[in-house]
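INFO worker-7 received task bundle
INFO bundle size: 2
INFO processing item 0
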Amino acid sequence: MVSEDARIQSEMSLWWLGHGAGKPGHEPRLIGRLFLTQGNEKVGLEYADDWSAAGFALSDDLPLGKGVYLPVERDMAPGAVNDARPDQWGERVIRAIDRPARQSVLDYLYFAGEDRCGGLGVSKELHRYVPNESMSLPGLESLADMDRAVASVRAGEPLDAGMVRLVRAGSLFGGARPKSLVEMSGSQWLLKFSAGEDFDMELVEHATMRLACHCGIQVASTQALPLRSGHAVAVKRFDRNEGSRSHVISAKTVLHAAGLTMGYPELAQCLHRIARPATVKAHQEELFRRMVFNILMDNTDDHEKNHALLRAADGYYDLSPAYDVVPAVQGLGEQQLRIGAQGTDSTIENALSEAEAFGLTKKAAVGVAKQVAAGVSNWKAFFQSHGVAQKDLAIIAQYIDGRHLEAQRAALVPRT
C-alpha cells in the first residue's frame, strides 16, 4: 500500500533546522521553495525573500538573492540541497517502507525525514514545516532486532511495524551500506551493518578509524558492536551537538561550486575561502595527513562525498572529523580524488608533488608522511588488538603489505 504522504507533489519547502531550531524560541526558518522541473528529473531551489535578506548561502553556487537555481545533471538537486538527500541504501529503505507513488529526487528528499545529515528539513507544506513522520530512535538493546530488520530489507522481505522503526532512520544517510540510527548515552550514533560479504568490514572500519586517530588524524568516535555474525560499527554523529544541528556540505559540493577538479589539492585551496583564516593551515595539514593515510591503507573509496565540512555559527567552515575510512582490499592503485601531478595515482611521490597546495614545504610534507607511515607500519598488531580475525588480516595484508604499498612505507620508515 502506498503511503498517505506519498501523494504526488511538484513543490515542497526547504527549512533551516540548525543551531537549535526546533527548540523553544528557535523555530524552523523557511529557506525557500523546492520544485520539480525538466520532466521531473531535476529539483530547483528558489530562496524565500526573508531568507535572502537574513539567511546564508547554502553553498557558494547558491548565493542569496532572487532567481531559481537548478542542477546541471539530471536526478539531482542544486548545490548543498543535494547533500541532504539519501543515497543507495536510503532510497532502498524508502522504497521498502514509504513506497512513494513517485520516485523523484524531491520525493526522496522529503521521505528522508527529520534526522537526515545536516541542518536542512523538507516539508510537504509550502509555508509550514511538516516533515515526514518521525519516530523515536531505538536504543542499543534493539541491536539484534535491527540486524534482522536490515537483513529483511536486503532480502526484499516485508517488514512489520516494529521492524520499520528499526530501519527507517537508515534512509537518512548516503552510501550503499545498510545503516540505521540509535540513541546511546544521550547522543545519536549511526550504525553500519554488513552488506553480506564474508569479511568483517565493520570491525575493520572501527580498527582503521582508531589507527587513523593514532596517526594524528581527527576522526569520528566509533564503537564495534558484536552481532550473531560479525559486527556493526557505530559512528557518533558529528553534525549534532547537544541537540543543535550543523549545516553540512560535501567536498563534492565545495569543489563543484568552485568549478574545480575533484581533488585533494583543490579542496585544500578552497579552505582559504571558506575556513576561518586562523585555522586554514591546520585544516590543510589535516587534509594532507588523511590523504597519505588513505594511500598507505589502501582506502581507495575516498571519493568527494566521503569528505565533509561543517558550518560554524560564525559562518566559517571546518573539516568534519574523518569518516568512512576503511581499506578497500582491492589494490587498485588509484584514489577517487586527484592526489597530485600524477593524477589519482596512489603514491607518496604523487602526494608530495603538490605539497605547497596544502601550505606545506616539501620537508614538512615528508615529515607528516613519515609520521603516518610509522603508525601504519604497525597496522597488523593494532588490528589484532581490536579483535580483527586472522582470516581478515590475511586478506588485508595482501594489499597493505603488498609490494606497492609496503615499498612506499619502507621508503619513509626503513625497517630496523
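INFO item 0 finished
INFO processing item 1
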Amino acid sequence: MQKIQKEVKDFMTERDWLNQPPVDVAKSIIIEAAELLENFQWSNFFLEEVEKDPELKEEIVKELADVFIYSIEMSILLDVDIEKIVHDKLVAAAKKYPVGVVNGKLGSKKYKAIKKKYRAEQALK
C-alpha cells in the first residue's frame, strides 16, 4: 500500500469509516468535484490567471485535495492499487489517443471523432 493510501486508511480506521457504502463515497467525489468546478463558474481562467491569483489557486487546491481524498477512500474500500489502475488507464488512453493523431486542443473535432469511433468499436465487442 502506498504511503498516501495508508495515511487515508488510518484516518478512516480512526473514524470507523472502513465500512461505508461505496455509493456514498462516489457521491462525495462528485460533490467535491462540483465544488472544484464552482471556482471556475462564470469564468474561463487560463492557467496563467490561476497562477497569478493565490487565493483562487488555494481554493482550487483545497477542493482538488477533497476529490483526491475521496478517490483514495474509494480505492481503499475496493482494495485496488492506485498506481496499477492509473497505469492501466494511461496505457488504454495511449492506444485510444495516439501521439501524432491527437495533439493540442482536446475540444477539437478530431478528438471528438476519435472518441466517437472508439466508443462504437467498444460497443461491438
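INFO item 1 finished
INFO post-check item 1: The two ends are 34 Å apart (CA to CA).
INFO post-check item 1: The mean pLDDT is 89.
INFO worker-7 idle
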